[in-house]
Amino acid sequence: MKKTLIAATALASVLGTASFAETIGASIARFDDNFLTVMRNGMVEYAAGLDGVDLQVEDATDDVAKQLDQINNFIASGVDAIIVNAVDTSATEAMTAAAEAAGIPLVYVNRQPVNVDTLPDNQAFVASNEIESGTLAAFEACKLARAAGLGGGANAYLMMGQLSNQAAVQRTKDVDDVVGMDMCNFINIIDRQTANWSRDEAQDLMTNWMSSGESFDIVFANNDEMAIGAIQAMKASGVSMEDVIVVGVDATQDALVAMQAGDLDATVFQDAFGQGEGSVDAALALARGEDVDQKVYIPFQLVTPANVADFLSRN
């Protein structure tokens, strides 16, 4: 009888432990993106340090249909919560509907879904406020241009991210809003094109722009990868980086190295690890029935040569 009691107690203990195990399925837009890799690593490392939490991460390879399939597979496997870094932020309503119908909490991370203002109670968005990112970078470029004596007129190029992403749309609008300010309206944006967040595409785009022979003073880039691509193209063509102001967003390690080399003038720190950890926390809280703010913002911070040392060990 005693042995039976002990066995029953042990079984109850095992079952109790199992009942508290939590599984999160995460679909990331693409693994071969520097910033998203840091964010993904932050999620994985943070979840690995939590007892009873299993994080399953999949690569959507920039394919909307594939990402929706991943979400449906997570639902079918009975995960406790889902995290999505959307391939296309205008295509998130179907993902929201699928998770809501299954009663599974969903957290969007980094890229703002088109339906962010109408998310169900068990869904949330964790990121940084993109109104800050483009504004901080553009205003710093404006100040640097004025300090360089360009207040009488300056030409600029604008490199945009994937236009299906809310971040690219908002960061571009931020630049336009800053250039529209009285103290910055001396800046003339002579062309704008998308380089899809890509260093290689940005390098090609910058090379094409320079082939026109038109003079320019500033390059605005929606992210650091494109800023670095532009810098590589300019340096390959013999352009002195002292003569051009280049700003990006994200404060990736490669960008900070470029800043230390005197090539990148400003970027904006987007806390990739913080967003990754925040998305896991929000997913677990929703899975446990806890209250979560539907918009969780991790602050952006301006990075310049004056404070770059403070960010070298981050992202």
Question: Can you characterise this structure?
Answer:
- With 315 residues, this protein is α/β, with parallel strands linked by helices.
- It has ten helices and twelve strands.
- It has helices at residues 2-19, 34-48, 64-77, 93-102, 130-147, 166-179, 199-211, 224-236, 253-260, 272-287; strands at 22-28, 53-59, 81-85, 106-109, 123-127, 154-160, 187-194, 218-221, 245-247, 267-269, 295-297, 301-303.
- The chain starts with a helix and ends in a 12-residue tail after the last strand.
- 44% of the residues lie in helices and 19% in strands.
- Mean pLDDT is 92; it is low at 1-19.
**Largest sheet geometry:** 6 strands, parallel
The protein's oligomeric status is single chain
Number of helices: 10
> What sequence of helices (H) and strands (E) makes up the elements?
HEHEHEHEEHEHEHEHEHEHEE
Q: Kindly name the structural category.
A: alpha/beta
Unreliable runs: 1-19
User: How many individual β-strands?
Assistant: 12
Q: Which percent range describes the beta-strand content?
A: 15-25%
How far is the N terminus from the C terminus? Answer: 58 Å
* Rounded radius of gyration (Å): 23 Å
Percent of residues in helices:
40-55%
Q: Mean of residue pLDDT?
A: 92
Shape label: elongated
User: Looking across the biggest beta sheet, what order are the strands in?
Assistant: 2-1-3-4-5-11
